[in-house]
Design a protein that fits this description.
about 750 residues; mainly alpha; two-stranded antiparallel sheet; 32 helices
């Protein structure tokens, strides 16, 4: 650790170091050199905690924590004290119990995330924060790698006496002891790995130590009792589980575990192939960047009308197009300064890869959590969100959505991976988040996230809603009639409210220019909803949707996100599926919830059922914003899987062939994306199955485009622009649409 003499007050440093020295130390008079507590060890720990509260927190400083980081308090003293207490638990004096509890309270202060403590970001505090952040990594490494492997177990043991009590017998102090323990585990999981090691290794080590020291059993106990005995602790367990699985891909851990069980060498081959891909990318980057010594001895000049360009390397010797490609590969695009959106850091964007051992442990924990703790914990948290409890903030809502989505995906992967050994599918294990109340909560959070421009929560809500629909779709295909009936009932309830459909339609208008993660979530949600409703409408001829209309009074409407969408091009099909002018705006009513409205509100609005037609609803997605959403998603084809590429072309196929609205796809930017996908050098590889999907679409696309250009010459100019509704009919049929003045005709008839 660094010497804090230059930045810390000498008086503070002297008091803190003296307290740490008086705490205790190894007894060198004995051969084993055991750790011996000082006579006033408990008082020293309490004084250190008072220094942290009175000096660092109240005075907005980190000097006490900086001084403690330069000592051996957390790295050596506290871990050894807790390990010794765990060995002598039940046999030692009660004073040691209080010492152990004080050690945990002190650890909670020292490992508390700096982003959540309200410290002001002054110039002097930035340097202090960097040192504390590095010190916390050392703390985590020292606790997890302690030679006794008893530190976490000892901390969990502190909470056992209060946990053994009944709910009516526990005092507020007993609940606070359990919360202190959970706070420490939350802080420990939140701390990233050391700078000298990978964060993936830190997460893997945390999972392994949690298994060795029985921390997972403690979490399962608290989560399974969140509905009755531990109702006040649900949020703390939610945080620990969230930070434990954050960033870990469900499909990766199940696919790798399946490969390891079947072929032991497959995982090693995959890791080797991943490294080869990385090395290949580095080599290509080195080759593409021009430098003086790159491909030394080759220097070419490309003369243009205005200037002369120099190219180094042998790539441009083949043909002139190769020289242009070399110049293009070295260009970097700079985003314009104007119009930037200020987003908060996305903590869910990074992906964590864990080791083989930790992967097996995590899968076992996930299975136990799904079997015993999934429903009680998430039902309890959902009820707190519904009644707007003071313990719930926006971060907890995000964690709730993320965990529901993650564990639903894990349940589906478990059925695919261990289908033969799993027995009869039991959807009751995840039924706690598939009822109507859970759907109401998720849709409401999605709408509020969109209104508040909380785009991270919006993405989590989209993923959660998508996985809910996928599970329901799997239930509808079950061999048991009971599961199929439940699934049909749930589908009818989900899409019964027209405001839910309006919300889904408005998503492309919001996220079409966002990151790849937002594009992935939005495209998958739209694809799944369209597919589900299409199949459901084929099986059920009579489907009704409740639309809320204005009964009277002023017809003043607020401008919403959905109203900013480009109008639909098919006027004939824009009756039922579109947002009616008289429909209630999503900002003016609770989605899927009509209870609790006052009489004044009900005086101007009434609900009416109308027949649902899938084609008219599908037509609402044939807009330029929705096409741009899928086009922007396809731009990242190098980072997409074959399934995601097929999903994108499936949507284009729906527009181009099934609905025959090919005119909206006749744009230069869309053609450029298709050209890049089919490029022989940098496009979709020929060995990938999605390559054939792109080639087939391109062949039919160009054939129709050529015929359209031959018939309507004006389309050459319109290829560069968005098609406007007033000219869309002419570009499609070659003549203007006849307009009839129905009001004038009716007036003449009635004289």
């Amino acid at each position: 650790m660094e010497d804090p003499t230059e930045t810390v007050d000498p008086v503070v440093r002297a008091h803190v170091t003296s307290l740490v020295s008086a705490l205790g130390g190894p007894d060198h008079t004995l051969p084993s050199q055991p750790y011996v507590l000082g006579d006033d060890a408990l008082a020293c720990l309490k004084d250190l905690k008072r220094w942290l509260k009175a000096y660092d927190q109240k005075l907005n400083r980190l000097e006490v924590a900086r001084t403690i980081a330069s000592t051996s308090l957390v790295v050596e003293d506290i871990p050894q004290i807790l390990a010794n207490w765990d060995v002598a638990a039940g046999n030692g004096p009660s004073r040691l119990d209080r010492v152990a509890l004080s050690c945990v309270e002190l650890l909670v202060h020292l490992t508390w995330p700096l982003g959540n403590d309200g410290i002001q970001n002054t110039v002097d505090m930035k340097e202090q924060k960097s040192h504390i952040d590095r010190a916390q990594r050392y703390y985590k490494s020292a606790i997890l790698n302690h030679q006794s492997h008893r530190v976490l177990k000892a901390i969990a043991r502190i909470s056992l006496p209060p946990l053994a009590m009944k709910r009516v017998e526990r005092m507020p102090r007993d609940d606070s002891v359990i919360k202190v323990v959970l706070y420490f585990f939350r802080n420990l999981v939140m701390i990233d790995g050391e700078r000298t090691e990978n964060e993936d290794d830190s997460r893997s080590l945390t999972i392994v130590e949690f298994e060795k020291q029985n921390i997972f059993e403690l979490l399962l106990l608290l989560a399974s009792g969140a509905g009755d005995n531990y109702t006040t602790l649900n949020i703390f367990v939610l945080e620990v589980v969230f930070y434990l699985i954050r960033g870990i891909s469900v499909k990766e851990i199940y696919q790798m575990s399946k490969q390891v069980d079947s072929k032991p060498d497959v995982a090693a081959k995959d890791n080797a192939s991943s490294w080869r891909v990385l090395e290949t990318g580095k080599k290509l980057h080195t080759i593409s960047n021009t430098s003086r010594h790159n491909r030394f001895g080759t220097m070419l000049s490309l003369v243009t009308d205005k200037r002369r360009l120099t190219i180094s390397g042998q790539q441009a010797l083949q043909k002139e197009a190769s020289a242009i490609d070399v110049l293009d590969s070295t260009k970097t695009w700079s985003r314009p300064q104007g119009g930037r959106k200020n987003f908060e850091p996305d903590e869910l964007a990074s992906t964590i890869h864990i080791t083989k051992e930790s992967r097996k442990i995590l899968i076992e924990f996930v299975h136990n959590f799904l079997d015993a703790a999934f429903n009680p914990l998430l039902i309890s948290v959902r009820k707190d969100i519904e009644r707007e409890s003071t313990n719930i903030d926006e971060l907890h809502k995000r964690q709730f959505l993320y965990l529901v989505s993650w564990f639903l995906e894990a349940e589906m992967e478990r059925r695919r991976t261990f289908g033969n050994d799993y027995g009869k599918p039991n959807f009751g294990l995840i039924a706690g988040v598939l009822d109507q109340q859970s759907m109401i909560t998720v849709v409401k959070l999605m709408r509020l996230s969109m209104e508040n421009k909380d785009f991270i929560n919006l993405r989590c809500a989209m993923d959660c809603f998508t996985n809910m629909i996928l599970v329901i779709s799997e239930m509808s295909l079950s061999e048991y009639e009971e599961d199929r009936d439940i699934a049909d009932n749930m589908i009818s309830r989900i899409f019964y409210e027209g405001t839910t459909l309006d919300l889904i339609v408005s998503i492309p208008n919001v996220v079409k220019d966002f990151s790849l993660l937002h594009l992935r979530s939005a495209t998958q949600l739209i694809y799944v909803v369209l597919k589900l409703l299409e199949n459901y409408s084929k099986q059920n001829k009579s489907i009704y949707v409740r639309k809320r209309r204005r009964r009277g009074g002023p017809r003043k409407r607020q401008r919403t996100v959905a109203s900013e969408a480009i109008p639909n091009f098919n006027d004939s099909d824009h009756e039922e599926g579109s947002a009616d002018e008289d429909d209630l705006d999503p900002d003016e009513a609770e989605i899927l919830d009509t209870d609790g409205q006052d009489e004044t509100h009900q005086e101007f609005f009434q609900a009416s059922e109308r027949a649902f037609e899938f084609k008219k609803f599908e037509n609402r997605f044939i807009t330029q914003n929705c096409v741009d959403l899928f086009r922007n998603f396809l731009v990242h084809f190098k980072d997409l899987t074959d399934q995601q590429i097929r999903l994108t072309f499936s949507f284009f196929h729906r527009i181009f062939f099934k609905r025959e609205e090919e005119l909206i796809l006749y744009r230069i930017d869309f053609m450029l994306v298709l050209y890049r996908c089919l490029d022989l050098n940098n496009g979709i590889p020929l060995t990938r199955p999605s390559r054939r999907e792109a080639e087939n679409f391109m062949k039919h696309y160009m054939r129709k485009l050529v015929h359209a250009l031959e018939d309507r010459q004006a389309l050459f100019t319109e290829l560069m622009f968005t098609k406007m509704p007033d000219s869309f009919f002419f570009l499609k049929y070659g003549y203007d649409k006849e307009a009839y003045n129905t009001k004038r005709i009716s007036r003449d008839v009635h004289g």
